[in-house]
UniProtKB/TrEMBL annotation:
GO terms for cellular component: plasma membrane. The lineage of its organism: Eukaryota, Metazoa, Chordata, Tunicata, Ascidiacea. Keywords: Disulfide bond, EGF-like domain, Signal. Residues 1-23 form the signal peptide. It comes from Ciona intestinalis. Residues 444-476, 528-560 form the EGF-like domain. Residues 174-267 form the Ig-like domain. GO terms for molecular function: fibroblast growth factor binding; fibroblast growth factor receptor activity. CDD domains: Ig. Pfam families: Ig_3. This is Uncharacterized LOC100176485. Disulfide bonds join 448-458, 466-475, 550-559. The gene is LOC100176485.
Length: 572
């Protein structure tokens, strides 16, 4: 970035915040709600609720018209705000600014009599003592002393102005205590309810927004209940409302501030009427858009064995491994289903979600439906909200549960304790089972990195299967021999030209610098003729196991070298 461009950006930022430097000290031009009636803050720039304001006044210091609307001249009641000013700032700020307080020994009271010393801050104030105590805590600064004997609480020529403090309002900013749920997946044709709670004084006003705009859609109603400092709001979205899906949030606002809740992502799941989840489609009830189904009928054995009896192909009885599907059901869906449908899980006061087994004492087979034995909305289970048990919950003596949300069906008379602890079908209690879609194994296509070239096919293990005429790690090598071309040089004995156009030794031979020699083999008589194929021994030598056995006076690989000249030999 060039220096000229940096200067332009800096000038733009300075103009945006209206920063002006005047004389030797900086004067920041700010809105009037920052303290001074002249529209600027003349001192104590780092303090939000305290400001030093220049000017003169007539009469008592409390009547000085130098503070803006919402501010007042700091007095002996503002010790909490004044105590935030350090002693260094108190004695180093230029000028002398008065405070409506009197320094009487170690006390901090209002300046009211001729015998009071008017408190203040500033380097030009007449008296400064760090060892005394005042409205600031440690240290005392006097703007006008009683030694002058004439109205010490009024303006004096050496005074620069007054110290202004922000008015303190009674009440509190809103706090969102209950936000709408982060994600709502509702089947089509079901009413959606979002909740929001806020606490504040005075009572806040709650407004609902969708995708950043205030909700005003036809079919959407808002219900509010106010009590003391709490406001409870419900947003009801009718099934007939248009364009239900979106991001919803609530905002609480009063004169002290604003609070915004977390967003709630609302989606609508369309029903699939052609979906078959039960063997008997006439007794099938799809929930939550078809991700789970209630299948009516009776079964033999435990509920775990009912998959092949009641669920269709590709479906099984819901169990612990299907908690992600069970958590999608809302409380309204679970209690609006007529009947009582069991699934392979159990609930108890000790374990919220456990496997269904008669060996686990205290467990009760879990189910879904309005006619189940016990419905406890405030409890936890494998469901997203509430606990539903197939059998009647046995309470202690003295009555039923104290939870106002709990609903208890009629007691199942004539049922033995052994049957209650089992996970089996019982006529008149269980209507059927809950079936969930099986999770098929997803095969992932093999990935080769880098990719295969020249029409090569990627296989598992980062391996490329090359077509005819290609080879290499990524099929990048062209095999010249495969296209009818010969090797550049003729291959020697016991070798051949391979697909890459390179001479390679035959099987049973190993390569040396310039030839192929036979490998050592302990087997007798095996491949003996093949080893001598192409070996031409000279001067009467004979081939044995791929090597030449030379006659006397000859040597070499093929007996081609003589020790001496034969014409000089003398026979005796």
């Amino acid at each position: 970035m060039s220096g000229a461009l940096r200067l332009i950006i800096l000038a733009t930022i300075m103009a945006a915040i209206s920063l002006t430097v005047e004389a030797e000290f900086a004067t920041i031009r700010v809105p009037q709600n920052f303290g001074c009636s002249n529209g600027r803050k003349d001192g104590l720039f780092r303090h939000r609720d305290v400001s030093a304001c220049k000017g003169t006044w007539e009469g008592h210091v409390r009547d000085a018209p130098l503070c803006s609307l919402g501010w007042h001249v700091c007095s002996w009641n503002d010790t909490e705000q004044l105590s935030g000013i350090s002693w260094y700032q108190t004695v180093h700020i230029e000028g002398c600014y008065a405070i409506n307080a009197a320094n009487r020994g170690d006390l901090c009271t209002e300046c009211s009599s001729e015998n009071d010393d008017l408190a203040g801050i500033g380097a030009d104030c007449p008296h400064q003592n760090q060892n005394d105590r005042s409205c600031f805590g440690r240290g005392k600064v006097t703007a006008s002393s009683r030694m002058f004997r004439h109205r010490p609480c009024e303006h004096k020529p050496w005074m620069t102005g007054v110290v202004c403090c922000r008015d303190r309002r009674k009440g509190s900013t809103p706090i969102i205590t209950v936000s709408p749920v982060s994600s709502v997946q509702s089947p089509a044709g079901v009413e959606i309810v979002l909740k929001c709670k806020a606490v504040a004084s005075p009572l806040p006003e709650i407004t609902w927004y969708k995708n950043g705009f205030q909700v005003n859609t036809v079919g959407v109603t808002v219900e509010e209940v106010a009590q003391d400092k709490l406001v409870y709001s419900k947003l009801r979205i009718s099934p007939l409302a248009d364009d239900v899906e979106g991001l919803y949030m609530c905002k609480a606002e009063n004169r002290h501030g604003i609070a915004v809740s977390y967003t709630s992502d609302v989606t609508v799941i369309q029903a699939r009427p052609k979906l078959v989840a039960c063997r008997d489609k006439a007794k099938q009830s799809l929930l939550h858009g078809g991700v789970i189904a209630a299948c009516g009928g009776k079964w033999k054995g435990t509920v775990k064995k009912s998959s092949k009896q009641l669920c269709a192909k590709g479906w099984h009885v819901c169990g612990l491994r299907d908690r992600s599907i069970l958590n999608k059901l809302t409380w309204a869906e679970t209690v609006s289903l007529s009947g009582c449908y069991a699934y392979d899980a159990a609930t108890s006061d000790h374990f919220a979600c456990n496997r269904c087994s008669r060996r686990l004492k205290g467990n009760s087979m879990a189910g879904i439906g309005a006619n189940c034995g016990s419905l406890e909305r405030s409890k936890t289970s494998c469901l997203n909200k509430g606990r539903i048990g197939v059998w009647q919950k046995q309470f202690l003596e003295g009555g039923n549960s104290t939870d106002e949300f709990d609903v208890t069906a009629t007691v199942q008379d004539g049922v033995s304790a052994k049957t209650r602890s089992s996970c089996r079908y019982h006529r008149g209690v269980t209507t059927g089972v809950m079936c969930c879609k099986k999770k098929g194994s997803k095969r992932k296509d093999p990935v080769c990195s880098p990719g295969c070239e020249n029409d090569g096919v990627c296989r598992v293990g980062n391996f490329c299967e090359c077509p005819a005429g290609r080879s290499g790690f990524r099929c990048e090598v062209l095999n010249t021999a495969a296209h009818g071309k010969k090797c550049a040089t003729p291959c020697g004995p016991n070798s051949h030209c391979n697909r890459k156009g390179v001479c390679k030794c035959d099987k049973g031979f190993k390569s040396t610098k310039n030839s192929c020699i036979p490998r050592k083999n302990r087997s007798k008589g095996k491949n003996r003729g093949r080893r001598c194929r192409g070996v031409n021994c000279q001067n009467g030598g004979r081939c044995s196991r791929g090597s030449c056995i030379c006659p006397p006076l000859f040597t070499g690989q093929y007996c081609e070298t003589a020790f001496v000249d034969q014409s000089q030999l003398t026979l005796h």
